[in-house]
Amino acid sequence: MEIDPFIFRLSIFILSIFVGYYVVWSVTPSLHTPLMSVTNAISSVIIVGAIIASLAGNSKEVFDSASIFGYLAIILAAVNIFGGFLVTQRMLAMYKKKKKDK
Amino acid sequence: MSANLLAIFYLVSGVLFILALRGLSSPETSRQGNLYGIIGMIIAISVTIISVGNFSIGFLYLIIFLVVGGTIGAFIAFKIPMTAMPELVAGFHSLVGLAAVFVAISAFLNPEIFNLGFPGDIKIASLVEMSLGAAIGAITFTGSIIAFLKLRGIMSGSPITFVGQHFLNLVLGILIVGLIYYLCKSQSENLFWSLIIISFLIGILLIIPIGGADMPVVISMLNSYSGWAAAGIGFTLENTALIITGALVGSSGAILSYIMCKGMNRSFFNVILGGWGATDDASSKKSSEQKPVKSGNADDAAFLMKNASSVIIVPGYGMAVAQAQHALKEMVDSLKKNGVKVSYAIHPVAGRMPGHMNVLLAEANVPYDEVFELEDINNDFANCDVAYVIGANDVTNPVAKTDPQSPIYGMPILDVEKSKSVLFVKRSLSPGYAGIDNDLFYRENTLMLFADAKKMTEEITKSL
Fold this sequence. Notes:
The complex is a heterodimer. Chain A is 69% helix and 0% strand.
């Protein structure tokens, strides 16, 4: 009997939820805002779907009905990726320790 | 590139994303973590482009769009003031949601490129996955737009409710399930479009009844939704990076929602089913009789704090509105010069998003080891001379401990009233968001400072 690949993906999914659960509980509350912005940035990895949608088609037209949505999604996801990571970086750069020489 | 190698790369970027979140367990490791996240993203994007292997004119457009979107994103990231963080995050969530919808649409219109079958004959499992991804994505999109408008102040922050609202949501929810079922049977394009439109509608209806101060829950919830949408698309595209990320983001948002709800002692459903403001007219009227209030000016406050040995600052949303964080830091610096020990106390739901106050204080160069969470500092109020409440209200209301009738009864609060004296910066005596009078205003040891948070803080600094 062969296992449906779907079951493997489901396993990854369920285990990742648990990983997420433990990892996020260990995030210090003072970094909850950067947590939101960085999760937002990484969820934009949905761009891989958009890239396939826009480039993998066989049609001679660059923009057909399916690829146009792919390109639109690329713009949206790109805003998020750059915006999300950079704003996180900007925030994290502000968290400083007390200077000892004071 | 072989499919197996590709899958390995996606796994690697998934693991890097886990490390990105792991880094946030302390500020020292967080910047490293963010770097892992960026590397993970670069890997995912590059291997996808290489595996598709289409470097024709379409690739050129891809680069152009990537640059256009990236420039917009970078511009926003550098320009946005830290006080506007909640609406920025809400806005970004809406983009993820919409991107998920777009990817689902293109998968539906051209399933061959994703190996999902053919138009009109898409694999049932894939169809369910993409429908779920599209529906959750659409809800995230419109929900986040509403949250954005409310946070930005374009739309009123007060809850919008009407008769039969919850019933309507229920009907629409059932309709979604029905539509997905018939979509699987008929593969009809019209059903797919209807599904998306109805989901857009649900997103709006879900968020409009939720009031301004419940926004921390809403943002976290939408954060979670954007993750589940990504996971749904990940299943459709059989992509490990997306599945891992979706699960991570989904559970992250869910945990944050839980923490926020616990910070208000309310159940998640209680928050979702509508705001506070509408229900407690009675309790706010009851207490409207005149009670004596002591009010003072900046000199009084400066005198009190200068002679204190320890001061605890309690910031709230009002500090963000007044942009008072820098003025506050200056005040604290002069206090420290006078030998006063100063720390900051942050309530979990202070502000409009999780961690909102911490970011603002960090922006004002407040060292993070002077900033404490509720459970770490609450016992210290009893030994502190002055509590300086700036822009917070409901989270300091002792009624939460004393009056079982109060809507906020049971909510964990900062025990500000235990300190020797309380300085309460506020523009007027008006009740806070919950619509309840704050007992603290009328206490013997409270001195009200009626002014704009920033102006008052600046004046105090001058008199110090």
